[in-house]
Amino acid sequence: MIFETDRLIVRQLQESDRGAYFDMMGNPNVMNPIPRDVMTREESNNHLNNFLNTEQKKNDKKVWAIQLKSENEFIGLCAFLENNENEDEIGYRLREKFWGVGYGTEITKGLIDFGFQHLKTNLITADVFVDNLRSVKILDKFFNRDIEFFNSDDKCTDRRYKLTRKEWL
After folding, report:
1. pTM of the model
2. What angle in degrees, to the nearest 10, is found between the helix axes of 41-49 and 18-25?
3. Could you read off the pLDDT of 156-168 as tens digits, one per residue?
4. Are 112 and 163 in contact (CB under 8 A)?
């Protein structure tokens, strides 16, 4: 286990996550607001393989599974990445059937706590497609809006949010 929140466990991804992972990555309702193309089963399997059994060091990309404490079910991904300015960035993605019950808010708060307390970072960022209103609403609860910019990889306008350790603690 990496960390936990009231209802969630964050852990390493596992081979047994494969079916649920594809349920998320192959769902246009999940992928379009990012915006990313849906994945075929083969693409999803290859994507998951990138994260399985990898030695994750302090400064590397960290991608983990989110599971419900109440049952051993994969409900999504969360991550610590680096943005294009080499700043710590959080991200998350949930399977559609787990939307609307506060897991996005809960995992965002958990990632912020983990980043400041355990990774000892001084600044956490989050980027979101401005039309992804569910994620915008979550990030507005915790972060300060910084800049909007054209994301050439995803061909959309993203907003960057920032939060310092001092502001959080």
Report:
1. 0.93
2. 120
3. 999 999 999 999 9
4. yes
